[in-house]
């Protein structure tokens, strides 16, 4: 059923009034509501079904420079919740940077970003979608068995109201399908996957395509070899390159800059990536999985170029980190149960011109990485080391699968050695084409 945004807005406005009545100097409230449902199948049988519903109330109150946030699923008494929050704020330590946005900064209108699919999802169709994806993967030669396929949808509503005069809301829907398979036997078993997610069902990739792609990826990974250690070009598949962009976004997040925990903390206005790299963040992208018409503090959102020709142009800032750094917020506040924090919205690296095949021919010998293992990134120093698997490039061709190797380097050097390929697709909130890194250390046999 559609989210009742009018009721959520009324609840938020009443909680603001309750907080001010309880003695708060300022306050803001986030009220959310949503539901999700889905199904997973395995070997042609339903393995699991689920549906969840939830409400969320997050109240942030200010007593002078002291601030406290309380969150609950469903308050039985709004006034009691407000009084508890004010009492907590009065005994909290002062925070000179937390505050509400000035009224003249607030969004007064915002665009319709087409974030709600008008077609209500039919839970009965999830089973057929998941089964179709699984059947397509199992039909691929070499695939031995399914690790499962799933399909689902969600619908959420978000309301922000504050004592500075802001009051706004929006809703979002989403659909997804995924599949994973196994090929090979015994210790030689390999697995891989594919997925698709979209705001509108019409934009979701066909389930048979998702399943077939997952199966083909799995079958290609059978009988991997080990390679000798050395320094080689590394080509990151686009499924991984978004993670590399995510590391860059984390390093230019205002919270990391203010805490001095980023290896890019002193690089504003300087070259942090190759001249081929341009990073854009656009909260107003139509039907974007990270789109939002206003940020978590009620500021109007705008498209920004974060990195232009490799040169760092901006940090990701909310109000608190901007004040701490002596800057102005650029409307990148996200709001959770514990308050606000900066985040990107729809971020991507602009594509280049070469395909994977063209790049393989150019480098001659190297590693095409399709999976990494572990969380080996030190955001303070930029050191990077992960387990990896994928395919060896030999004589300009993708020759054979490889596994049980490591790739290592430093993100400062890796960013400066990036070349984007032509295969950018928007499959999430952080997207990048496949990326060539000129040289990385590869640990093998």
Q: What percent strand?
A: 35-45%
Q: Please state how the strands of the largest beta sheet are arranged side by side.
A: 3-2-1-4-5-6
Percent range of helical residues: 10-25%
Regarding CATH, which class of the largest domain? Alpha Beta
The succession of helices and strands, N to C, reads HEEEHHEEEHEHHEEEHEEEHEEEHEEE
Determine the mean pLDDT.
95
Radius of gyration: 24 Å
How would you sum up the major sheet? 6 strands, antiparallel
Q: N- to C-terminal separation?
A: 57 Å
Secondary structure tally: strands: 19
CATH homology group of the largest domain: PmbA/TldD superfamily
- Known CATH architecture of the largest domain: 2-Layer Sandwich
Please, could you describe this protein's structure?
The protein has 445 residues and is an alpha+beta fold. The chain has 3 domains: 5-218, 2-Layer Sandwich (PmbA/TldD fold); 224-243 and 351-443, no CATH class; 264-349, no CATH class. The protein is built from 9 helices and 19 strands.
């Amino acid at each position: 059923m559609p989210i009742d945004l009018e009721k959520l807005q009324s609840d938020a406005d009443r909680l603001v009034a309750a907080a001010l009545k309880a003695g708060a100097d300022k306050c803001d409230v986030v009220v959310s509501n949503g539901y999700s449902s889905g199904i997973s199948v395995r070997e042609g049988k339903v393995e699991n079904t689920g549906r969840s519903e939830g409400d969320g109330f997050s109240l942030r109150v200010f007593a002078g420079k002291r601030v406290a946030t309380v969150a609950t699923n469903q308050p039985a008494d709004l006034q009691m919740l407000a009084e508890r929050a004010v009492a907590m704020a009065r005994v909290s330590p002062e925070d000179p940077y937390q505050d509400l946005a000035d009224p003249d900064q607030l969004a007064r209108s915002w665009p319709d970003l087409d974030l709600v699919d008008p077609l209500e999802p039919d839970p009965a169709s999830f089973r057929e979608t998941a089964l179709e994806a699984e059947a397509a993967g199992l039909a691929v030669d070499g695939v031995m068995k399914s690790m499962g396929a799933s399909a689902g949808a969600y619908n959420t509503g978000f309301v922000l109201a504050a004592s500075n005069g802001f009051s706004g809301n929006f809703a979002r829907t989403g659909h997804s399908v995924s599949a994973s398979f196994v090929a090979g036997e015994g210790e030689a078993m390999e697995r891989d996957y594919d997925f698709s997610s979209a705001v509108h069902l019409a934009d979701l990739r066909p389930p048979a395509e998702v399943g077939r792609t997952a199966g083909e990826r799995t079958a290609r990974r059978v009988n991997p070899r080990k390679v000798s250690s050395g320094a080689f070009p590394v080509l990151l598949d686009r499924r991984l390159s978004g993670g590399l962009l995510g590391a860059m976004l984390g390093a230019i997040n205002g919270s990391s800059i203010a805490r001095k925990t980023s290896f890019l903390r002193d690089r504003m206005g300087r070259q942090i990536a190759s001249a081929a790299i341009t990073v854009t963040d656009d909260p107003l992208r139509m039907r974007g999985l990270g789109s939002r018409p206003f940020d978590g503090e009620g500021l109007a959102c705008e498209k920004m170029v974060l990195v232009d020709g490799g040169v760092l142009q901006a940090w990701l800032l909310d109000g608190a980190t901007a004040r701490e750094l002596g800057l102005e917020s650029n409307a990148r506040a996200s709001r959770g149960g514990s308050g606000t924090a900066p985040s990107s919205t729809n971020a991507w690296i602009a594509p280049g011109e070469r395909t994977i095949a063209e790049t393989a021919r150019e480098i001659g010998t190297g590693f095409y990485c399709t999976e990494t293992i572990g969380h080996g990134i030190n955001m303070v120093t930029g050191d990077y080391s992960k387990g990896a698997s994928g395919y060896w490039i030999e004589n300009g061709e993708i020759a054979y699968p490889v596994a049980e190797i490591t790739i290592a380097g430093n993100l400062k050097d890796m960013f400066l050695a990036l070349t984007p390929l032509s295969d950018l697709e928007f499959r999430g909130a952080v997207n990048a084409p496949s990326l060539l890194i000129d040289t990385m250390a590869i640990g093998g046999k």
